[in-house]
Amino acid sequence: VVSVLDELVVPVVAAPMAGGISTPELVAAVSEAGGLGFLAAGYLTPDAVRDQLHATRALTGKPFGVNIFVPGDTAVDESAVDRYAARLTAEAHRYGVYLGDAIADDDGWAAKLDLVLAERVPVVSFTFGCPDADVLARLRENGSTVVVTVTSAAEARLAAAAGADVLCAQGQEAGGHRGTFDNPPAESSVAAELDPDADSAPRNDMGVLPLLREVTSAVSLPVVAAGGLGSGADVAAVLVAGAAAAQLGTLFLGCPEAGTKPAHRAALTEAAGTAVTRAFTGRPARGLVNRFLRQHSAVAPAAYPHVHHLTKSIRAAGDPEAMSLWAGQGHHFVRELPAADLVRQLAADARSALAAATRRML
Amino acid sequence: VVSVLDELVVPVVAAPMAGGISTPELVAAVSEAGGLGFLAAGYLTPDAVRDQLHATRALTGKPFGVNIFVPGDTAVDESAVDRYAARLTAEAHRYGVYLGDAIADDDGWAAKLDLVLAERVPVVSFTFGCPDADVLARLRENGSTVVVTVTSAAEARLAAAAGADVLCAQGQEAGGHRGTFDNPPAESSVAAELDPDADSAPRNDMGVLPLLREVTSAVSLPVVAAGGLGSGADVAAVLVAGAAAAQLGTLFLGCPEAGTKPAHRAALTEAAGTAVTRAFTGRPARGLVNRFLRQHSAVAPAAYPHVHHLTKSIRAAGDPEAMSLWAGQGHHFVRELPAADLVRQLAADARSALAAATRRML
After folding, report:
1. How confident is the model at residue A188 (pLDDT cuts 50, 70, 90)?
2. CA-to-CA distance for B200 and B185, rounded, in angstroms?
3. Could you tell me if A127 lies within 8 Å of chain B, comparing CB atoms?
4. Closest alpha carbon within chain A to B200
5. Above 90 in pLDDT, residue A362?
């Protein structure tokens, strides 16, 4: 476990980015450059994951990882989903598409687990929850290092108790889906108006530095820090704050090896900022602020993956104002740079930043 | 300017904490230990600020700062304030108090400005906006270093253009009020239900690391980083990320010199977490999650300082479940420690953390 992270020449992990972004070429380039690349099994068929695994292995002999979505509670407020679908009818008309079926699948959980076991993938990471202890034990006995994504000290304790080798502490700055284990309904002013005594739980919005402190204090596992890291100086900052490695997703969106759509790529530096929204998938995720996000975030229900399927055709219609342009808070610093060069640059800049701060403190 | 920060023996700033927390004793102890202490002029009468200034000067000859709230646009949705007041009637009954008058004062702006000019305060910082360029010029010509609190690159550019010497970049992790220049209405699901085409602007939720990167890229001023810093390692982390100094508030709440109420002190380590809310003052502020915050956050209007005055008697009633327990995301790491010891500990831990990360990166 610790050895996989300790053996990295550069303590930089390229985040798994589902939806076609984390290609075998990107993953292999990162691992070849001394970091750790991650394939994203999410939304792919198990066969497609197998193909990507083999393609990656053909490109590198270095360790890499595969990330799998953990299926959660799919009991949702069906009437809220119906109301949201009715609202989105106008969007579907606008783009000349049909809304998808708001179904609850498990993203091929069992088959993907069988696959990473059969393929003895070096590092297997999980998002949206922590598998049962026996699942983690099978992976570890099989030689895989197991990483569980957490967003709070409570989740960190659960993952450590289940036998995780490494935790990925994901701050609220991170792009794409929040890795929270559960998906509680958002604070609703409608509900609050109806019942002045109603408790509405505020969402977990821990930033990467305080989260890292909470997690490293709660458990004694190595922790990879993720969320809004936009430079080698930021990589060094989280190492100084106690991380075993830094995970970056957004900066890798600019690499030619990434499968980032051109409209997404262009928007990264142009967009004013990002926000966390359930509008696209029914689970909180951070993306560049566009029209769809602004108009639907306040009412989108907590219903995943129902809403993901519902909005698929709208997102695929090609209008950047209605696409899920996932990005973290460091998105303005994306540049077009081959992944190996980016990894080397992050390492060099991290060293410079450490040296400068050390001079200041002496 | 730069000299005040550069001359600090320890690049640690104790955040101004209004409401009686930042006492002359706390400010003097921090500055005497080599950091920079800050008096909080907010909510005090100008006479009380003068008394605190003199008391601080009697305790230390070292530089210290005074923070002043910048009055903002007080044109609010009066009907929303009335509805909120009606809702809070039950709270007032519960505690046997009368609601305050929802008035819009300017917190003694002109008199406090005259005071810091007359007293030639070494460092003057501003929150909730940036004063006009002529105000900053008068302070600078008078020998004061001027600090403006910002939460975005856009605010940083405005403050730099107005002539600020230093910026304080406040991440969303920070306790107490967000220093945003404006106070836009929250995303409202009520409004969104009524008008499906309505844009609802997502709130600015930049974490301290990406904010620091944005601000240092946007302007060439020295930047103090604030938000959720819970240890010397976190101080070192923001220095590595490019800050000229680290500002901490929450950790100083545990110092015996601080005027932290006993109930607030006890809740810091016991509370599960924090959330940003307008429930107490009508402006977004981060506090420990308690009953009042859970029950009113979703509907509290953007009306500052109207709501601050409205809720004053409820907050003063002494129930920790209805007090504004301001705290940042590092609140679990508060300990009872004299301020000078805390400053020295932060410096020592920052050096250790830098050394450990440097060994890892070589």
Report:
1. low
2. 9
3. no
4. A294
5. no
B166: β partners: B147
Is A190 an interface residue toward B (CB < 8 Å)?
yes
Peptide bond into A305 cis (omega under 30): yes
Between chains, do A202 and B289 touch, taking CB under 8 Å as contact? Answer: yes
Q: Is the per-residue pLDDT at A346 higher than 80? A: yes
- pLDDT tens digits for A277-288? 999 999 999 999
Confidence of residue A202 (pLDDT cuts 50, 70, 90): confident
Of A194-198, A220-224, B73-77, B119-123, the range with the lowest mean pLDDT is A194-198
Which residue has tokens 């990471």?
Answer: A125
Bridge partners, residue B296, by sequence = none
Helix residue ranges, H only, B119-207: 133-141, 153-162, 189-194
Residues 6+ apart with CB under 8 A from A322: A91, A95, A290, A291, A292, A314, A315
For chain A, helix (H) and strand (E) counts, in that order, are: 14, 11
Of B240, B288, B284, the closest CA to residue B267 belongs to B288
Token couple for B351: 């050096």
Q: How many CB atoms lie within 10 A of CB B262?
A: 8
- pLDDT exceeds 80 at position A136: yes
Would you state the structure tokens that stand for residue B218, as one six-digit string? 């946007």
Interface size A-B, in CB pairs within 8 Å, comes to: 229
Closest C-alpha among B79, B100, B99, B83 to residue B91: B99
Per DSSP, what are the bridge partners of residue A277?
A: A285
Residue closest to A36 by CA, chosen among A161, A285, A222: A222
Write phi, then psi, for A289 (nearest 5 degrees): -75, 120
Instruction: State if pTM tops 0.95.
Output: yes
Q: Which two tokens stand for residue A287?
A: 């993306």
Strand, helix or coil for residue A133: helix
Q: Which pLDDT score, from 0 to 100, does residue A13 have?
A: 98
Q: Which residues of chain B have pLDDT under 50?
A: 1
Count other Cβ atoms within 10 Å, centred on residue A42. Answer: 22
Neighboring chain A residues of B358 at a CB cutoff of 8 Å: 354-355, 358
* Partner residue opposite A196 with nearest CB, options B200, B210, B295: B295
CB atoms within 10 A of CB B157: 14
